[in-house]
Design brief:
The complex is a heterodimer of chains A (about 180) and B (about 800).
Chain A lengths: L1 H51 L1 E3 H12 L5 E10 L20 E5 H11 L6 E3 L5 E8 L4 H9 L11 E7 L8
Antiparallel strand pairs in A: 1-4, 2-3, 2-5, 5-6
Helix pairs in contact in A: 1-2, 1-4
Chain B lengths: L2 H57 L6 H22 L7 H4 L5 E5 L3 E11 L17 E9 L2 E8 L15 H6 L7 H6 L11 E2 L5 E2 L14 E7 L3 E13 L5 E9 L4 E8 L2 E8 L6 E8 L2 E6 L7 H8 L5 E7 L4 E3 L5 E4 L5 E4 L2 H24 L14 H9 L4 H14 L25 H27 L13 H9 L1 E12 L2 E11 L11 E5 L2 E4 L9 E4 L10 E4 L13 E2 L2 E2 L2 E5 H6 L1 E3 L5 E3 L4 E2 L1 H4 L5 E3 L5 E3 L4 H7 L13 H18 L11 E13 L3 E3 L11 E13 L6 E8 L9 E4 L6 E6 L10 E6 L4 E12 L1
Parallel strand pairs in B: 23-29
Antiparallel strand pairs in B: 1-2, 1-18, 2-7, 2-8, 3-4, 5-6, 8-9, 9-10, 10-11, 11-32, 12-13, 12-14, 14-15, 16-17, 18-19, 20-23, 20-26, 21-22, 24-25, 27-28, 30-31, 32-39, 33-38, 34-37, 34-39, 35-36, 35-38
The chains are: A alpha+beta (about 180), B alpha+beta (about 800).
């Protein structure tokens, strides 16, 4: 009797060792690859936005399709810190001790998306920025990846920060965008 | 036990071990990942800071002026923190969250550098309206006197309800309280305590909330001065070095000197200080001795004159000649055979009003001025200072004791020495260095990075920066939390990068990163800015004539100079050593006249913008750029023998090495000779047009002579101990006189002649009023060519009845 039990346990352990662990490891490697893809796509998106001074619906769709090609769903968050005045000087809102302090206000994903959607048709969905604005884009997976699922079997992680793949990039805009 | 049992037990024992170790390894992997992630973010933030700097200098016309520059640096600094905060996922409002991990940011600029670092500042006692409180003001009471690091000092308390001129109790207005006398601490009270010198002094806060008039430390930390930390951009520090010697300076090499030299990233230097008895303030480009082999000028009313002696050249006159190529020609012959004339590139073009007109190439005139000015400055410099040795460098800017003191408070005594020795090794020791950085040896070319001059300059700048960074970081660590900040050791290659261009180096230390603390730095350099000239960042376009139909006769047979906005094939800009640049082509000539080129800095390609009415910019690129040379990574150049080599080498050396005959006469049919000439003109023009903060508007040295006894008119004024007695070395003199009067009736003014012992006198006379006895200065300026001695001067009025007294003479030397 005890022999059979031990055999069952041994088979169970063997199954874990021979299938689950390699699977887990492969799933994690695949996440690593996804991570690289997502990171480079996000960086490319930000670099284009920084260089041209605008975000277009076209570019955004390209980013989304590129990262979703990894087989996961992602939350893409865009934040643009809009500079209130000229790049470094003469701000009316400066602290009196500091020269060149800037004031920024932030515009977030939904506002940018709404703006671009309203523009679509005539302006082709372009959101323009100006020199000195800072754009920051992050992408996090919203579904559970395979490695997360397998890990979930052994130990569960709960809460908001349960993403496995996340990429973030930001930069200062270096030219004034136009609608053309 | 059966095999299954053993295997199950084995698995049960090892799985936890493997799990734990794999967890540990994954943490390590995560740490490395985070580390590279933070490094990238730091690099990116520094890069953004540099871009902000470049944009601001490009968009601001006065960006090289120091006040403007400072605000640009502050702005760039803000961008650094904004980007870093954004990248690290905290809002830029949390700048104060990141600041403690940034011990220093270094900005190396053209002639000096800025360090942004946290600094401890004492707090001054103020009332609730922010007015500075002194010991004599209302509300201040003397609590006790204690012994501190600065001797016995008073400890005061200030009642926060009091105002500067008014106690909170009496119902008096400000004027009345002032009239009624000051606060409670009077002079006699202080005198009886032996601290009367503290009367009416401003007060600094101590750690225990009391105030003292002096900054001090006490054995009980509570009684020491309180310092608050603030993040500031420290004062601009120039790249300067002081040299002192008892002998070795001057033309004869036997005079003492005490001078300060300000260096820059290129070969521009400023010299200030005493050589013998003369105080010099001079600035200019230091070029290789004998680089300029002769200067020739001629023109309307001026016979052809060739000179090789700097003292025979009047800078003002020759600059005026160079600016007027229609009437004068000024030619500079360089040692390598290149001849540059202000009439280079002249071209006859069809005039819109008919006929033809000659137009000149401004760049050539600008270049001629650069070489003449540099020649005058360098000749003077080598004549006077070539014997200075590196060991004459005065180490008064930094001391290892300061470093020791900074570490002292944190470490045991035995460790202080070993640690300060480590820092000492980071600083170059000049005392045993006997090289002559300003030697006249032709191999010592200040423009060459392998010369003694460059090596010495590099060591001076590196020492200054290293020392100030070490101290900034140590002082910061002194009372920081748990993390210790240290100056990282930068590699020599990194120093080369830092000392060649405008650079930002940001340091980030002590940031928690997985299993360890993140310590790293990022270096970003810039070549696209307003404040430096880098020779491989100048782009060239051919200057050519094109045939157009100006008179409307249907044939394009009038020649005009092609401009860049024409739709013309030559609009592609290249670097000087790019094989696609064809400066010596036939269409670059008009007859035998080489037409030159259009040269500009790369900044103009990158940031040359036009502001539109709607606030947007369009880029007004002066020319297209060539893919071969604009992209560094694929840039190759072709040697004379056809071999292809990497293009990012030293440009000047490349051009010199590839000439058909090294040091031969200029051969305009040889491509490399033409390029060398274009290079010489372009770099000279750009440098001549660069704004320098440390430059002096006029270069001269001066010595004053005072009359020890009364010297009346007509009596000889002797120049005792005059340093340079040759007449041709004197720029001008200023004579101070007083007590001018005349016995002749009806005479109100007179003219005065100044005559040297040799009989030479100034052509211009000075007119004085003989009705005023007040003190005034007469200035005499003229270029003499005599090399005879100057022993004294005699002032002779036109009218023998005029009398005045000479008080002193100030002699200005070239």
């Amino acid at each position: 009797m005890s022999d059979s039990l031990i055999t069952v346990i041994a088979i169970f352990l063997a199954a874990i060792l021979m299938f689950i662990f390699p699977l887990m490891s492969i799933a994690e490697r695949s996440d690593d690859i996804s991570q690289l893809t997502v990171q480079s796509a996000v960086t490319e998106f930000v670099n284009t936005a920084v260089g041209t001074g605008k975000i277009t619906m076209n570019e955004y769709n390209k980013l989304v399709s590129k990262i979703e090609a990894t087989g996961n769903k992602y939350d893409v968050e865009i934040e643009i810190k809009v500079l209130d005045e000229n790049i470094g000087k003469k701000s009316a809102w400066t602290q009196k001790q500091v020269i060149g302090e800037n004031n920024y206000y932030s515009v977030y994903t939904s506002q940018i998306m709404n703006y671009m959607a309203s523009m679509e048709g005539d302006g082709d969905g372009v959101y323009t920025m100006k020199e000195g604005d800072i754009i920051s884009v992050s992408a996090k997976n919203s579904n559970k990846t395979l490695s997360q699922t397998i890990r979930g079997i052994f130990y569960s992680i709960s809460g908001n920060g349960t993403y496995q793949i996340s990429a973030q990039s930001s930069g200062m805009v270096t030219s004034n965008g136009t609608n053309n | 036990m059966k095999f299954q049992h053993v295997s199950v037990i084995f698995v049960l024992i090892f799985i936890p071990i493997i799990l734990v170790s794999s967890y540990f390894i994954s943490l390590q992997v995560e740490t490395i990942r985070m580390e590279s992630d933070y490094s990238e973010k730091l690099q990116k933030a520094t890069y953004d800071a540099m871009r902000a700097f470049e944009l601001n200098t490009a968009n601001e016309d006065l960006s090289a002026v120091s006040d403007s520059l400072r605000s640009i640096i502050e702005a760039s600094n803000n961008i650094f923190f904004n980007t870093l905060c954004t990248n690290l996922g905290v809002s830029n409002a949390s700048k104060s969250y990141i600041q403690p991990y940034i011990p220093a940011i270094l900005y190396t600029l053209y002639d000096g550098y800025y360090i942004y670092s946290p600094t401890n500042l004492p707090e001054i006692c103020v009332d609730k309206y922010g007015r500075t409180i002194r010991t004599s003001d209302f509300g201040v009471t003397l609590k006790t006197v204690r012994s501190t690091s600065v001797g016995n000092i008073g400890f005061y308390e200030f009642d926060n309800n009091s105002l500067k001129y008014q106690d909170n109790s009496p119902e008096l207005d400000e004027a009345e309280t002032i009239a009624n006398g000051a606060g409670t601490v009077d002079y006699n009270t202080l005198k009886s305590s032996g601290i009367e010198q503290e009367y009416s002094q401003i007060l600094y806060k101590n750690n225990d909330g009391t105030y003292s008039t002096e900054l001090h430390t006490a054995s009980n930390r509570d009684f020491s001065t309180y310092y608050s930390r603030s993040y500031i951009l420290k004062s601009y520090i120039p790249y300067s070095a002081r040299y002192i010697g008892a002998t070795g300076a001057g033309p004869s090499g036997n005079q003492s000197y005490n001078i300060t030299i300000n260096y820059t990233l290129d070969n521009f230097i400023t010299v200030e200080g005493n050589i013998g008895n003369v105080y010099y303030t001079k600035s200019g480009y230091l070029i290789r001795n004998n680089l300029v082999s002769s200067i020739e000028y001629s023109g309307t009313g001026v016979p052809t004159t060739t000179t090789t002696d700097w003292t025979n050249i009047s800078k003002d006159v020759i600059d005026a000649y160079a600016d007027d190529p229609a009437h004068y020609e000024v030619k500079v012959t360089l040692q390598d055979g290149i001849v540059i004339s202000n009439r280079d590139g002249q071209v006859a073009i069809a005039s819109p009003t008919g006929g033809s007109e000659t137009i000149y190439w401004d760049d050539a005139g600008s270049a001629v001025k650069y070489y003449i000015d540099s020649f005058i400055f360098s000749s003077w410099f080598y004549e006077n200072l070539s014997n200075i040795r590196a060991s004459n460098y005065q180490n008064d800017q930094y001391s290892v004791t300061d470093i020791k003191n900074a570490i002292d408070s944190r470490l045991e005594q035995s460790l202080v020495n070993s640690e300060s020795d480590l820092y000492k090794e980071m600083l170059y020791d000049f005392t045993a260095d006997s090289t002559q950085p300003f030697s006249v040896d032709p191999s010592n070319d200040p423009e060459n990075q392998e010369s003694d001059f460059y090596t010495h300059k590099r060591a001076v700048i590196k020492n200054s920066i290293t020392y100030n960074l070490i101290l900034s970081m140590l002082v910061y660590t002194e009372d920081s939390r748990t993390v210790e900040f240290r100056m990282p050791v930068l590699s020599e290659e990194e120093w080369d990068i830092i000392l060649n261009n405008v650079t930002i180096v940001s340091f980030m230390e002590g940031f928690k990163c997985g299993l360890k603390y993140f310590n790293n730095y990022a270096i970003v350099t810039s070549t696209n800015n307003e404040i430096t000239v880098t020779d491989n960042e100048i782009y060239y376009v051919e200057r050519v004539v094109e045939n157009v139909d100006l008179d409307g006769d249907g044939t394009a047979n009038e020649q005009i100079l092609a401009t860049l906005d024409d739709d013309y094939i030559f609009e592609t800009a290249h670097r000087i050593d790019c094989e696609n640049l064809h400066l010596g082509d036939a269409n670059n000539f008009q007859g035998s006249n080489w037409l030159g080129c259009i040269s500009f800095k790369s900044k103009e390609i990158k940031y040359d913008k036009i502001l539109n009415n709607d606030g947007s910019y369009t880029y007004d690129h002066k020319a297209f750029t060539d893919y071969n040379c604009i992209v560094d990574s694929n840039y190759t150049v072709r040697n004379r023998n056809g071999t292809v080599v990497d293009g990012n080498t030293q440009v000047l050396q490349y051009l010199l090495n590839n000439r058909s005959t090294p040091s031969g006469a200029l051969n305009l049919s040889d491509d490399y000779d033409v390029r060398l000439k274009a290079y010489r003109i372009a770099i000279a023009k750009e440098r001549n047009n660069l704004y320098k903060t440390t430059a002096f508007t006029e270069n001269y040295g001066w010595q004053t002579f005072n009359a020890s006894y009364e010297i009346r008119q007509g009596t000889r004024f002797p120049f005792d101990h005059i340093s340079r007695s040759n007449l041709n070395e004197i720029l001008k003199i200023e004579v101070t006189i007083e007590d001018a009067q005349t016995t002749a009736p009806g005479v109100y003014s007179d003219s005065v002649v100044a005559r040297y012992d040799t009989g030479k006198q100034y052509n211009s006379t000075q007119t004085i009023s003989t009705t005023s006895k007040s003190r005034r200065t007469l200035e005499y300026k003229q270029d003499f060519s005599e090399t005879t001695g100057v022993g004294g001067i005699t002032l002779i009025p036109g009218d023998s009845d005029t009398e005045f007294k000479v008080i002193g003479v100030k002699v200005y030397y070239k």
